[in-house]
């Protein structure tokens, strides 16, 4: 197994590069895409099943456009932070209203 030292970044593979290009290109309209509509029902189920204490901090890894993070903020009064492989997708989270 190849290990990387402090400050060194692992080179991206072909699939990671593809994911970045794909999601960067649809970030502006993700919710209206087939994939966005498909994942919307899972967002609703997650909101139904989770219980987040008010004032909690939530990390959403693979946050996409931040719609789940924003919904958690609004429903539970939590602070949500997100990270995504696509800069354009996670930029959507940064633009959304803060809770």
Structure description:
With 99 residues, the protein is mainly alpha-helical. The chain has a domain at 59-93. It is 48% helix and 10% strand. The protein is built from four helices and two strands. It has helices at residues 14-26, 34-49, 67-76, 87-95; strands at 57-61, 79-83. It has a two-stranded parallel ribbon. Helix 3 (67-76) links the parallel strand 1 and strand 2 (79-83). It is globular, with a radius of gyration of 15 Å. 18% of the residues are buried.
Notable traits:
4 helices, globular, 99 residues, two-stranded parallel sheet, single chain, mainly alpha
Spatial order of the strands forming the largest sheet: 1-2
Give the end-to-end Cα distance, rounded to a whole number of Å: 42 Å
- Let me know the number of strands: 2
Query: Which structural class should the secondary elements be placed in?
Result: mainly alpha
The radius of gyration is 15 Å
Report the sheet with the most strands, covering strand number, pairing sense and barrel closure: 2 strands, parallel
Mean of all residue-level pLDDT scores: 85
Tell me roughly what share of residues is in helical segments: 40-55%
What is the overall shape?
Answer: globular
Beta fraction of the residues? 5-15%
Low-confidence stretches: none
Number of helices: 4
Order of helices and strands: HHEHEH
